[in-house]
């Protein structure tokens, strides 16, 4: 079901049909996976307990202040510099603001334990996402996850996708804390394109956040597809859909899907 894009599709269909779709780039959180609300409290409590082991002079109010300051810094870095640090660096910043210096071993141990929360409380796969990924993989398209990270590292997200049996459908996974830049920075999309050996004209990126996914993809010339399950129009010209079934139908109308044999250079 297309929410607002009838005229957009009519104006751009003939031009887009000139390109064969060779690659699907797709966001993770909010698009493929839906996170658990309980993660925030679990991680907050765990980090508070771990930091508390190194001092007896930090009460809940002081720790909360340090936590909020780090979170504000994280958001500012994402918005201004398009960077998301690894969770060990986030713990380091909290500890430093409290006057504590944690060893690399401790930081690594705490970071690994933070990642384990996703295994204890697995996320939900968005309705239709698994079927969509399996279908485009079967049809021979290169699939790349392009995801910003927060408290959960890229390694944890990679393991989660594999544990949910989505790993075989994904050729490449590109995470902001690994490549050193975050959406909407064009470089993270360029890394994904290079990994798949595709040009931006032959790629479509699917995401649920307009500012990072759609604008970021557009900055590289990638065809952006906005997944807005609540049918909220971004108020601009952009393909906007409420489910993966509609996205699959749209791709079939707009692009000529390249077969597996063609992608591998066979006749």
Textual characterization of the structure:
The chain is an alpha/beta fold and 267 residues long. It is built from 13 helices and ten strands. Strands 6-5-2-7-8-9 form a six-stranded parallel sheet, sandwiched between helices. Helix 8 (154-163) links the parallel strand 5 (142-147) and strand 6. The model is unreliable at 1-18 and 260-267 (pLDDT under 50).
Topology:
Layout: H1 6-16, E1 20-21, E2 23-26, E3 33-34, H2 38-52, H3 60-81, H4 87-97, H5 104-115, H6 117-120, E4 124-125, H7 129-138, E5 142-147, H8 154-163, E6 172-175, H9 176-179, H10 186-196, E7 203-207, H11 210-218, E8 223-227, E9 240-241, H12 244-254, E10 256-257, H13 260-263
Parallel strand pairs: 1-10, 2-5, 2-7, 5-6, 7-8, 8-9
Antiparallel strand pairs: 3-4
Helix pairs in contact: 3-4, 4-5
Query: Quick check: average pLDDT?
Result: 88
Task: Count the beta strands.
Answer: 10
Order of helices and strands: HEEEHHHHHEHEHEHHEHEEHEH
Q: Main beta sheet, described?
A: 6 strands, parallel
- Cα radius of gyration in angstroms: 20 Å
Structural class: alpha/beta
Which sequence of strands runs across the widest sheet? 6-5-2-7-8-9
| Approximate shape | elongated
Distance between the termini: 36 Å
Beta-strand portion reads 5-15%
Helix content: 40-55%
- How many separate helices? 13
pLDDT < 50 stretches? 1-18, 260-267
Explain briefly what this protein structure is:
With 267 residues, this protein is α/β, with parallel strands linked by helices. 50% of the residues lie in helices and 13% in strands.
